[in-house]
Specification:
Layout lengths: L2 H11 L2 E9 L2 E6 L3 E6 L13 E7 L2 E7 H4 L12 E7 L2 E7 L1 E9 L3 E2 L13 E7 L2 E6 L1 H4 L2 H17 L1
Parallel strand pairs: 2-11, 5-7
Antiparallel strand pairs: 1-2, 1-8, 3-6, 4-5, 6-7, 9-10, 10-11
C-alpha cells in the first residue's frame, strides 16, 4: 500500500463538521448546518407587545408564524442600520423554528477535529457560555455557537408559544 492511499484513508476517517458562517459586527460565528433550515432576505416583522428586548417580532413565512430574534440585541451589541447584506437565518431549536437577524451570512465551511480549541473566557463581545468551541479555518477564528445555550429554557418556551398559538388558530 502506498503512502498516498494511507493519507487518503486517514482523511476519509477524519471527522468533519459543517457550519454556516455569519457575522455580527466584525465577529465571525458558525452555526451547525444541520440546525439551519433556510436563509432569507430581511423581511418585515410584526412587533409583539410585552416581549423580551431581543425579539424583533414575528413574521409569516409561507403560512408559518416564526419569532424573529435580533442577534445583536440578544448579545447586547450596539444597534446597526440594516443593509442589503442583512439576513434572517431560520433555525430549528428543540423542535421550534426561530429566525435570527444577522449582519451577513458568509459561507458553509468544513471543520476537522484538529481545528478546534476551547473558547476564551474573555475578550469577545458575547458571553462565552454561548460558544461551544472555536475553530481555526485558514487565518480566521470562528466562534461556534451552541444554539441550545443561546436561550434560557424560559426564553425557548416563550418563543415556542408562537408556534402553539398558530396551531390553535388553525
Amino acid at each position: 500500500m502506498s503512502d498516498v492511499s494511507i493519507t487518503e484513508e486517514k482523511l476519509s476517517l477524519a471527522k468533519v463538521d459543517r457550519f454556516l458562517t455569519l457575522y455580527l459586527e466584525d465577529e465571525q460565528y458558525g452555526l451547525d448546518i444541520n440546525m439551519v433550515k433556510e436563509i432569507i432576505a430581511l423581511m418585515k416583522t410584526t412587533p409583539v407587545p410585552k416581549t423580551p428586548h431581543f425579539l424583533e417580532g414575528v413574521m409569516n413565512l409561507r403560512g408559518n408564524i416564526i419569532p424573529v430574534v435580533n442577534m445583536r440585541s440578544k448579545f447586547n451589541m450596539e444597534t446597526k442600520e440594516t443593509d442589503d447584506r442583512t439576513a434572517i437565518v431560520i433555525v430549528g431549536i428543540q423542535g421550534s423554528d426561530i429566525g435570527f437577524i444577522v449582519d451577513r451570512v458568509e459561507e458553509v465551511i468544513a471543520v476537522e477535529e484538529n481545528q478546534y480549541s476551547e473558547p476564551p473566557q474573555f475578550g469577545t463581545k458575547i458571553d462565552s457560555e454561548f460558544v461551544s468551541k472555536m475553530a481555526r479555518v485558514d487565518n480566521n477564528v470562528i466562534m461556534i455557537l451552541d444554539l441550545n445555550k443561546v436561550f434560557s429554557e424560559k426564553e425557548l418556551n416563550f418563543l415556542d408559544s408562537f408556534e402553539e398559538e398558530e396551531e390553535t388558530l388553525a
